[in-house]
Amino acid sequence: MSYSLFIASRYLTSRSKRTFISIISFMSVLGVAIGVAALVIVMSVYNGVTEEMREKILGANPHVMVMATQAGAFGPEAARGEGEVIERIRETPGVVSATPFLYAEVLLSTPQGATGLVVRGIDPVSAGESMPLLHHLESGSVEDLVRESGPAGMIVGHDLARRFNLRVGSRVNLMSPAGQRTTAGFVPKLRSFRVVGVFKSGMSDFDSRLAYVSLGAAQELMGYPDGHVSGVEAFVKNPYDARDIARDVAERLGPPFYSRNWIDMNANLFAALQLERFGMFIVLLMVILVGSFSIITSLVMLVMEKTKDIAILMSMGATAAGVRRIFMFQGAIIGAVGTSIGYVLGIVLALLLKKYQFIELPPGVYMMDTLPVIIDPVDLLVIGAVSMLLCFVATIYPARQAARLVPAEALRYE
Q: For residue 11, is pLDDT > 70?
């Protein structure tokens, strides 16, 4: 052990009467620890929220959407999940499955009231196998969308079902803007549907304004010819490769087809999350900065008190660099202790929050009912590195002041 590190540790552990300086050093450690703990908890929660939102978005949305600028470009076979276009999409490397869909906006009418609704016509077989949201319905089954007799089936969102008191077996009416001309004038098209399932995505927009019906029922409701589809939904092996795969699909098909991917469609949401995450990191970093300012105060006061000791050391042959290292080591030790305590405190609290979920969120306001937690080792390394850097920077000024002492001047009045 070098004499600089030995003296620095002695200054920190000695039981002298420097009560005030010891209190300031303790507050420095406490400030750094609280800042580090807060950063660990908040960053873990942000990681959990971001991942939870990704999972919910991927559960309710396709990874890649392929559409066309010309009606009928997919061909009549697309409605059966067949045809040249769909086969070329499925043959694209990375694509696991592809299923046609039909998008429509209608008016839902029930005895409890009416509301606007987004209807997605799907192939119950291929979509039921590919879309995670339809794997885990609260009630009912996706296979019941196709009915041999009676009204066509419909799967509604949890919030919509709760608002209008809908359950499996309930009957509703859907009114399409694609009406019919009669002798009495323009009459909107009205069809009856029976609820055959209820899903819950955790996303309010989907759970309150989205419903699934079969492709045939959607075509009949909107007055489209058989075989008409809005596009094809593709699911890929690795969702994070969706942007590159969407580009490959568009190049394979060429005009009039174009593709979109879930990353670009939700880019604004994830950009906002990243901005909030960065802003919160900067705000909580101020707590560590306050602790580092306390380190400056305690070291400056220690230099003033230990002027005689420093002068004697330099008279005995200690170099200016050695004296500088004494106070740098002392600040670094304070930072290391504070960071270590903050790590332990933050990780323990984050794990407790993850296990017991003692913070509940208002239902219907957020996408989740409790705060999810994911502890990222990279975040821990960044937090520790920034904390130690701030603590080290705080030692530079006091250490330089100590190294500038002239032994003769310091001992003149002793």
A: no
